[in-house]
Amino acid sequence: MAMAARRLLFSSSHLRPLAAAPHRRKHDAVSCKSTGKARTGTSTKPKDSGAGKWRPQRRALEEHLKRRTRSAGAFDADLYRRHSHSHHVPVLLGEVLAAFRRPLPLRSFVDCTLGAAGHSLAMMEAHPEMELHIGMDVDPSALEIGQRHVEAFLASRATDGGDSLQGVLRAYTHVKNFKYIKHVLGGVDESLLADSSGVDGILIDLGMSSMQVNRSDRGFSVLHDGPLDMRMDPKATLTAEDILNSWPELEVGRILRDYGEESNWQSLQRRIVKARQAGGLHSTGELVKLIQRSCTISGGRQGWIKTATRVFQALRIAVNDELRILEDTLHSCFDCLATDGRLAVISFHSLEDRIVKQTFLELIHGDGVDDGDEDLVCTDIDDEDEPWFKQRVKGMNGIILTKRPITPSQEEEKLNQRCRSAKLRVIQKA
Fold this sequence. Notes:
Layout: H1 50-67, H2 77-83, H3 93-99, E1 108-111, H4 118-126, E2 132-136, H5 140-159, H6 162-166, E3 170-174, H7 181-188, E4 199-205, H8 210-213, H9 240-246, H10 249-259, H11 265-275, H12 284-294, H13 300-320, H14 322-336, E5 337-347, H15 350-365, E6 378-380, E7 391-394, E8 398-400, H16 410-415, E9 423-429
Parallel strand pairs: 1-2, 1-4, 2-3, 4-5
Antiparallel strand pairs: 5-9, 6-7, 7-8, 8-9
Protein backbone atom coordinates (compact mmCIF):
# COMPACT_ATOMS: atom_id res chain seq x y z
CA MET A 1 0.00 0.00 0.00
CA ALA A 2 1.19 3.52 -0.76
CA MET A 3 -0.73 4.98 2.15
CA ALA A 4 0.99 5.42 5.47
CA ALA A 5 -0.46 3.47 8.34
CA ARG A 6 -1.66 6.09 10.78
CA ARG A 7 -2.62 4.30 13.95
CA LEU A 8 -2.94 7.02 16.52
CA LEU A 9 -4.08 5.13 19.60
CA PHE A 10 -5.11 6.95 22.76
CA SER A 11 -5.03 5.74 26.30
CA SER A 12 -4.90 7.52 29.61
CA SER A 13 -3.61 6.75 33.07
CA HIS A 14 -4.53 8.10 36.48
CA LEU A 15 -1.33 9.05 38.24
CA ARG A 16 -1.39 9.23 42.00
CA PRO A 17 1.57 11.34 43.12
CA LEU A 18 3.64 9.82 45.90
CA ALA A 19 5.89 11.62 48.34
CA ALA A 20 9.36 11.43 46.83
CA ALA A 21 12.41 10.50 48.85
CA PRO A 22 14.72 13.46 49.32
CA HIS A 23 17.70 13.79 47.02
CA ARG A 24 20.18 15.63 49.21
CA ARG A 25 23.04 17.72 47.95
CA LYS A 26 25.21 20.62 49.01
CA HIS A 27 23.18 23.78 48.96
CA ASP A 28 25.09 26.16 46.75
CA ALA A 29 22.17 28.32 45.72
CA VAL A 30 22.55 32.04 46.33
CA SER A 31 20.11 33.62 48.76
CA CYS A 32 17.78 36.24 47.40
CA LYS A 33 18.73 38.53 50.28
CA SER A 34 21.15 41.32 49.50
CA THR A 35 24.08 41.94 51.79
CA GLY A 36 23.15 45.60 51.86
CA LYS A 37 24.69 48.77 50.50
CA ALA A 38 28.30 49.66 51.22
CA ARG A 39 28.86 52.30 53.85
CA THR A 40 29.46 55.82 52.66
CA GLY A 41 33.08 56.88 52.83
CA THR A 42 35.63 59.14 51.21
CA SER A 43 36.28 56.78 48.32
CA THR A 44 34.97 57.82 44.92
CA LYS A 45 34.46 54.20 43.80
CA PRO A 46 30.87 53.22 43.00
CA LYS A 47 28.93 51.63 45.80
CA ASP A 48 28.44 47.91 45.50
CA SER A 49 27.04 45.10 47.57
CA GLY A 50 29.12 42.17 48.77
CA ALA A 51 27.36 39.89 46.31
CA GLY A 52 28.00 42.32 43.47
CA LYS A 53 31.77 42.11 43.89
CA TRP A 54 31.70 38.41 43.05
CA ARG A 55 29.16 38.56 40.25
CA PRO A 56 31.67 38.98 37.38
CA GLN A 57 33.81 36.13 38.69
CA ARG A 58 30.75 33.91 39.05
CA ARG A 59 29.65 34.66 35.50
CA ALA A 60 33.14 33.92 34.19
CA LEU A 61 33.23 30.61 36.04
CA GLU A 62 29.79 29.61 34.77
CA GLU A 63 30.79 30.43 31.20
CA HIS A 64 34.03 28.46 31.60
CA LEU A 65 32.14 25.43 32.84
CA LYS A 66 29.70 25.61 29.96
CA ARG A 67 32.46 25.91 27.36
CA ARG A 68 33.84 22.55 28.45
CA THR A 69 30.72 20.73 27.31
CA ARG A 70 29.29 22.91 24.55
CA SER A 71 28.16 21.13 21.42
CA ALA A 72 30.98 20.96 18.89
CA GLY A 73 28.64 20.38 15.95
CA ALA A 74 27.86 22.91 13.26
CA PHE A 75 24.60 24.71 13.99
CA ASP A 76 21.94 24.01 11.35
CA ALA A 77 19.60 27.01 11.46
CA ASP A 78 17.40 25.58 8.69
CA LEU A 79 16.82 22.41 10.72
CA TYR A 80 15.47 24.46 13.63
CA ARG A 81 13.29 26.56 11.34
CA ARG A 82 11.67 23.48 9.84
CA HIS A 83 10.84 21.87 13.17
CA SER A 84 10.09 24.88 15.38
CA HIS A 85 6.70 26.55 15.61
CA SER A 86 4.61 28.74 17.84
CA HIS A 87 4.07 25.96 20.38
CA HIS A 88 7.66 24.95 21.07
CA VAL A 89 11.28 25.08 19.92
CA PRO A 90 12.97 21.66 20.28
CA VAL A 91 16.18 21.81 22.31
CA LEU A 92 19.52 20.34 21.17
CA LEU A 93 17.82 19.13 18.00
CA GLY A 94 20.98 18.65 15.91
CA GLU A 95 22.71 16.88 18.79
CA VAL A 96 19.76 14.52 19.32
CA LEU A 97 19.80 13.60 15.63
CA ALA A 98 23.54 12.91 15.86
CA ALA A 99 23.02 10.72 18.92
CA PHE A 100 20.88 8.29 16.93
CA ARG A 101 22.80 8.39 13.65
CA ARG A 102 24.70 5.26 14.62
CA PRO A 103 25.26 2.37 15.17
CA LEU A 104 21.88 0.87 14.15
CA PRO A 105 19.38 1.66 11.42
CA LEU A 106 16.66 3.36 13.46
CA ARG A 107 13.72 1.10 12.67
CA SER A 108 11.93 1.71 15.98
CA PHE A 109 11.90 4.87 18.08
CA VAL A 110 10.11 5.96 21.26
CA ASP A 111 9.69 9.61 22.20
CA CYS A 112 8.75 9.46 25.87
CA THR A 113 7.89 13.18 25.98
CA LEU A 114 6.30 13.81 22.59
CA GLY A 115 5.01 17.31 23.27
CA ALA A 116 4.68 19.17 19.98
CA ALA A 117 6.70 16.39 18.24
CA GLY A 118 9.62 18.59 17.18
CA HIS A 119 12.24 15.96 17.95
CA SER A 120 10.09 13.12 16.60
CA LEU A 121 9.41 14.76 13.24
CA ALA A 122 13.11 15.47 12.77
CA MET A 123 13.89 11.82 13.57
CA MET A 124 11.27 10.58 11.09
CA GLU A 125 12.65 12.88 8.42
CA ALA A 126 16.25 11.79 9.07
CA HIS A 127 15.44 8.06 9.22
CA PRO A 128 13.28 6.98 6.28
CA GLU A 129 13.95 3.38 7.33
CA MET A 130 11.86 3.90 10.50
CA GLU A 131 9.02 1.39 10.72
CA LEU A 132 7.64 2.06 14.19
CA HIS A 133 7.25 5.31 16.12
CA ILE A 134 5.68 5.56 19.57
CA GLY A 135 4.97 8.92 21.17
CA MET A 136 4.08 9.26 24.85
CA ASP A 137 3.15 12.27 26.94
CA VAL A 138 1.40 12.62 30.27
CA ASP A 139 -0.08 15.97 29.19
CA PRO A 140 -3.09 15.31 26.91
CA SER A 141 -3.19 18.85 25.51
CA ALA A 142 0.47 18.67 24.52
CA LEU A 143 0.01 15.20 23.03
CA GLU A 144 -2.93 16.41 20.94
CA ILE A 145 -0.71 19.02 19.30
CA GLY A 146 2.02 16.45 18.67
CA GLN A 147 -0.49 14.00 17.25
CA ARG A 148 -1.68 16.52 14.67
CA HIS A 149 1.90 17.21 13.58
CA VAL A 150 2.68 13.48 13.25
CA GLU A 151 -0.51 12.92 11.24
CA ALA A 152 0.38 15.78 8.91
CA PHE A 153 3.88 14.35 8.39
CA LEU A 154 2.55 10.88 7.57
CA ALA A 155 -0.02 12.32 5.17
CA SER A 156 2.66 14.37 3.43
CA ARG A 157 4.97 11.38 3.19
CA ALA A 158 2.20 9.24 1.68
CA THR A 159 1.37 11.97 -0.85
CA ASP A 160 5.01 12.16 -1.90
CA GLY A 161 5.11 8.40 -2.41
CA GLY A 162 7.64 7.88 0.35
CA ASP A 163 5.94 4.80 1.78
CA SER A 164 6.12 2.89 -1.49
CA LEU A 165 9.89 3.32 -1.46
CA GLN A 166 10.68 3.15 2.23
CA GLY A 167 8.01 0.92 3.76
CA VAL A 168 5.06 1.65 6.00
CA LEU A 169 5.67 3.72 9.14
CA ARG A 170 3.36 2.79 11.99
CA ALA A 171 2.85 5.65 14.45
CA TYR A 172 1.14 5.40 17.82
CA THR A 173 0.52 7.97 20.54
CA HIS A 174 -0.38 7.33 24.17
CA VAL A 175 -1.46 9.65 26.97
CA LYS A 176 0.83 8.00 29.48
CA ASN A 177 3.57 8.91 31.90
CA PHE A 178 6.91 7.62 30.63
CA LYS A 179 7.21 5.33 33.64
CA TYR A 180 4.70 3.09 31.83
CA ILE A 181 6.95 2.53 28.81
CA LYS A 182 7.00 -1.25 29.21
CA HIS A 183 3.22 -1.39 29.39
CA VAL A 184 2.91 0.77 26.27
CA LEU A 185 5.43 -1.24 24.26
CA GLY A 186 3.79 -4.50 25.29
CA GLY A 187 0.43 -3.19 24.10
CA VAL A 188 1.84 -2.23 20.70
CA ASP A 189 3.93 -5.35 20.09
CA GLU A 190 4.77 -7.93 22.75
CA SER A 191 7.89 -8.98 20.84
CA LEU A 192 9.46 -5.61 21.69
CA LEU A 193 9.82 -6.78 25.30
CA ALA A 194 11.53 -10.05 24.38
CA ASP A 195 15.17 -10.51 25.38
CA SER A 196 16.21 -10.87 21.75
CA SER A 197 14.31 -7.77 20.61
CA GLY A 198 13.77 -4.21 21.86
CA VAL A 199 13.65 -0.73 20.36
CA ASP A 200 16.55 0.99 18.62
CA GLY A 201 16.18 4.44 20.17
CA ILE A 202 14.46 6.19 23.08
CA LEU A 203 14.38 9.92 23.86
CA ILE A 204 13.34 11.67 27.09
CA ASP A 205 13.14 15.47 27.13
CA LEU A 206 12.54 16.59 30.70
CA GLY A 207 12.00 20.26 29.89
CA MET A 208 8.83 22.27 30.23
CA SER A 209 7.45 23.23 26.85
CA SER A 210 6.43 26.77 25.98
CA MET A 211 2.84 25.65 25.46
CA GLN A 212 2.75 24.58 29.13
CA VAL A 213 4.62 27.53 30.65
CA ASN A 214 2.67 30.13 28.69
CA ARG A 215 -0.72 28.84 29.83
CA SER A 216 -1.56 30.66 33.05
CA ASP A 217 -4.21 28.09 34.00
CA ARG A 218 -1.50 25.41 34.42
CA GLY A 219 0.27 27.36 37.16
CA PHE A 220 3.84 26.79 35.93
CA SER A 221 4.85 30.38 35.21
CA VAL A 222 6.10 32.95 37.72
CA LEU A 223 5.07 35.75 35.34
CA HIS A 224 1.42 34.80 34.77
CA ASP A 225 -1.20 34.74 37.51
CA GLY A 226 -3.16 31.52 37.69
CA PRO A 227 -4.20 28.67 39.97
CA LEU A 228 -1.54 26.89 42.04
CA ASP A 229 -1.89 23.71 40.01
CA MET A 230 1.43 22.54 38.45
CA ARG A 231 0.13 19.07 37.53
CA MET A 232 1.65 17.59 34.39
CA ASP A 233 -1.20 15.07 34.41
CA PRO A 234 -4.51 16.96 34.78
CA LYS A 235 -6.11 13.80 36.21
CA ALA A 236 -3.71 13.63 39.14
CA THR A 237 -5.09 14.70 42.50
CA LEU A 238 -2.21 16.51 44.22
CA THR A 239 -1.66 20.20 43.41
CA ALA A 240 0.82 22.85 44.53
CA GLU A 241 -2.01 24.51 46.45
CA ASP A 242 -2.45 21.36 48.52
CA ILE A 243 1.24 21.31 49.46
CA LEU A 244 1.42 25.00 50.38
CA ASN A 245 -1.74 25.05 52.47
CA SER A 246 -1.89 21.64 54.13
CA TRP A 247 1.43 19.80 54.14
CA PRO A 248 3.47 19.80 57.39
CA GLU A 249 5.83 22.71 57.84
CA LEU A 250 8.91 20.48 57.80
CA GLU A 251 7.85 18.89 54.50
CA VAL A 252 7.36 22.31 52.90
CA GLY A 253 10.85 23.29 53.99
CA ARG A 254 12.34 20.03 52.73
CA ILE A 255 10.80 20.58 49.30
CA LEU A 256 12.19 24.11 49.05
CA ARG A 257 15.63 23.01 50.26
CA ASP A 258 16.08 19.71 48.40
CA TYR A 259 14.09 20.23 45.21
CA GLY A 260 14.51 23.97 44.77
CA GLU A 261 18.06 24.16 46.16
CA GLU A 262 16.94 27.43 47.74
CA SER A 263 19.31 28.71 50.44
CA ASN A 264 16.61 31.04 51.83
CA TRP A 265 14.23 28.12 52.35
CA GLN A 266 13.74 28.61 56.10
CA SER A 267 12.45 32.16 55.73
CA LEU A 268 10.17 31.16 52.87
CA GLN A 269 8.91 28.18 54.82
CA ARG A 270 7.92 30.39 57.77
CA ARG A 271 6.17 32.90 55.51
CA ILE A 272 4.22 30.17 53.70
CA VAL A 273 3.03 28.62 56.97
CA LYS A 274 2.15 32.06 58.36
CA ALA A 275 0.08 32.79 55.24
CA ARG A 276 -2.21 29.92 56.20
CA GLN A 277 -3.46 31.97 59.14
CA ALA A 278 -4.72 34.59 56.68
CA GLY A 279 -6.53 32.08 54.47
CA GLY A 280 -3.64 30.45 52.68
CA LEU A 281 -2.19 30.76 49.17
CA HIS A 282 -4.50 30.10 46.23
CA SER A 283 -2.85 31.59 43.14
CA THR A 284 0.59 31.87 41.59
CA GLY A 285 0.31 35.64 41.94
CA GLU A 286 -0.13 35.37 45.73
CA LEU A 287 2.89 33.07 45.97
CA VAL A 288 5.01 35.42 43.86
CA LYS A 289 4.07 38.38 46.08
CA LEU A 290 5.09 36.38 49.15
CA ILE A 291 8.46 35.65 47.52
CA GLN A 292 8.91 39.29 46.54
CA ARG A 293 8.32 40.39 50.14
CA SER A 294 11.00 37.96 51.32
CA CYS A 295 13.54 39.53 48.96
CA THR A 296 14.97 42.98 49.59
CA ILE A 297 14.23 45.76 47.13
CA SER A 298 17.92 46.09 46.28
CA GLY A 299 17.85 42.60 44.82
CA GLY A 300 15.96 43.94 41.83
CA ARG A 301 13.67 42.09 39.48
CA GLN A 302 16.14 39.33 38.72
CA GLY A 303 16.60 38.59 42.42
CA TRP A 304 13.02 37.63 43.13
CA ILE A 305 12.53 35.97 39.75
CA LYS A 306 15.42 33.58 40.39
CA THR A 307 14.08 32.75 43.83
CA ALA A 308 10.54 32.32 42.49
CA THR A 309 11.83 30.06 39.71
CA ARG A 310 13.50 27.81 42.27
CA VAL A 311 10.36 27.71 44.42
CA PHE A 312 8.12 26.90 41.46
CA GLN A 313 10.58 24.21 40.34
CA ALA A 314 10.53 22.63 43.78
CA LEU A 315 6.74 22.55 43.93
CA ARG A 316 6.44 21.15 40.40
CA ILE A 317 8.87 18.34 41.23
CA ALA A 318 6.95 17.47 44.41
CA VAL A 319 3.53 17.61 42.76
CA ASN A 320 4.58 15.27 39.95
CA ASP A 321 7.01 13.11 41.96
CA GLU A 322 9.46 13.74 39.14
CA LEU A 323 12.76 12.59 40.61
CA ARG A 324 11.69 9.15 41.81
CA ILE A 325 9.77 8.53 38.59
CA LEU A 326 12.79 9.58 36.52
CA GLU A 327 15.13 7.07 38.16
CA ASP A 328 12.65 4.21 37.74
CA THR A 329 11.98 5.22 34.14
CA LEU A 330 15.66 5.21 33.18
CA HIS A 331 15.94 1.58 34.30
CA SER A 332 12.78 0.64 32.40
CA CYS A 333 13.92 2.38 29.22
CA PHE A 334 17.32 0.67 29.32
CA ASP A 335 15.58 -2.69 29.67
CA CYS A 336 13.51 -1.91 26.56
CA LEU A 337 16.51 -1.15 24.33
CA ALA A 338 17.76 -3.57 21.71
CA THR A 339 21.44 -4.49 21.67
CA ASP A 340 23.38 -1.37 20.58
CA GLY A 341 20.21 0.67 21.07
CA ARG A 342 20.56 4.15 22.56
CA LEU A 343 18.77 6.19 25.20
CA ALA A 344 19.15 9.99 25.16
CA VAL A 345 18.00 12.20 28.04
CA ILE A 346 17.77 16.00 28.07
CA SER A 347 17.65 17.50 31.57
CA PHE A 348 17.34 21.12 32.68
CA HIS A 349 18.52 21.36 36.27
CA SER A 350 21.19 19.83 38.44
CA LEU A 351 18.91 17.47 40.37
CA GLU A 352 17.71 15.78 37.18
CA ASP A 353 21.17 15.70 35.62
CA ARG A 354 22.69 14.16 38.73
CA ILE A 355 20.09 11.39 38.73
CA VAL A 356 20.67 10.70 35.02
CA LYS A 357 24.45 10.61 35.49
CA GLN A 358 24.38 8.28 38.49
CA THR A 359 21.71 5.99 37.05
CA PHE A 360 23.62 5.64 33.78
CA LEU A 361 26.68 4.54 35.79
CA GLU A 362 24.56 2.00 37.67
CA LEU A 363 23.14 0.69 34.41
CA ILE A 364 26.49 -0.03 32.77
CA HIS A 365 28.39 -1.18 35.88
CA GLY A 366 25.74 -2.39 38.29
CA ASP A 367 24.43 -0.93 41.55
CA GLY A 368 26.66 0.78 44.07
CA VAL A 369 28.96 2.63 41.66
CA ASP A 370 30.57 5.77 43.03
CA ASP A 371 30.94 8.91 40.95
CA GLY A 372 34.73 8.57 40.98
CA ASP A 373 34.67 5.08 39.46
CA GLU A 374 33.88 6.39 36.01
CA ASP A 375 37.40 7.79 35.61
CA LEU A 376 38.80 4.26 35.81
CA VAL A 377 37.09 3.21 32.59
CA CYS A 378 36.99 6.46 30.63
CA THR A 379 38.34 6.32 27.09
CA ASP A 380 39.09 9.23 24.77
CA ILE A 381 37.66 8.80 21.28
CA ASP A 382 38.58 10.70 18.14
CA ASP A 383 35.67 9.86 15.85
CA GLU A 384 34.89 12.23 12.99
CA ASP A 385 31.46 10.66 12.53
CA GLU A 386 30.51 11.22 16.16
CA PRO A 387 32.36 14.29 17.46
CA TRP A 388 29.72 14.64 20.17
CA PHE A 389 31.05 11.67 22.09
CA LYS A 390 34.75 12.32 22.63
CA GLN A 391 34.86 10.76 26.10
CA ARG A 392 33.03 7.54 26.81
CA VAL A 393 32.59 5.37 29.88
CA LYS A 394 32.57 1.65 29.16
CA GLY A 395 30.95 -0.95 31.37
CA MET A 396 29.83 -4.53 31.25
CA ASN A 397 26.25 -3.68 30.27
CA GLY A 398 26.81 -0.71 27.97
CA ILE A 399 28.65 2.52 27.16
CA ILE A 400 27.96 6.02 28.38
CA LEU A 401 28.69 8.08 25.28
CA THR A 402 28.77 11.38 27.16
CA LYS A 403 31.15 11.39 30.11
CA ARG A 404 30.38 15.09 30.25
CA PRO A 405 26.90 16.20 29.18
CA ILE A 406 26.48 18.08 25.92
CA THR A 407 25.13 21.62 26.26
CA PRO A 408 23.68 23.89 23.54
CA SER A 409 25.88 25.83 21.16
CA GLN A 410 26.08 29.60 21.43
CA GLU A 411 24.10 29.87 18.18
CA GLU A 412 21.24 27.84 19.65
CA GLU A 413 21.22 29.93 22.83
CA LYS A 414 20.77 33.05 20.73
CA LEU A 415 17.79 31.42 19.01
CA ASN A 416 16.18 30.02 22.16
CA GLN A 417 17.19 31.42 25.57
CA ARG A 418 15.19 28.74 27.38
CA CYS A 419 17.69 26.11 26.21
CA ARG A 420 20.59 27.56 28.20
CA SER A 421 20.41 25.07 31.07
CA ALA A 422 19.80 21.99 28.88
CA LYS A 423 22.15 19.00 29.19
CA LEU A 424 22.16 15.93 26.97
CA ARG A 425 23.44 12.53 28.13
CA VAL A 426 23.42 9.39 25.95
CA ILE A 427 23.87 5.72 26.84
CA GLN A 428 24.22 2.70 24.52
CA LYS A 429 23.24 -0.82 25.53
CA ALA A 430 25.75 -3.64 25.09
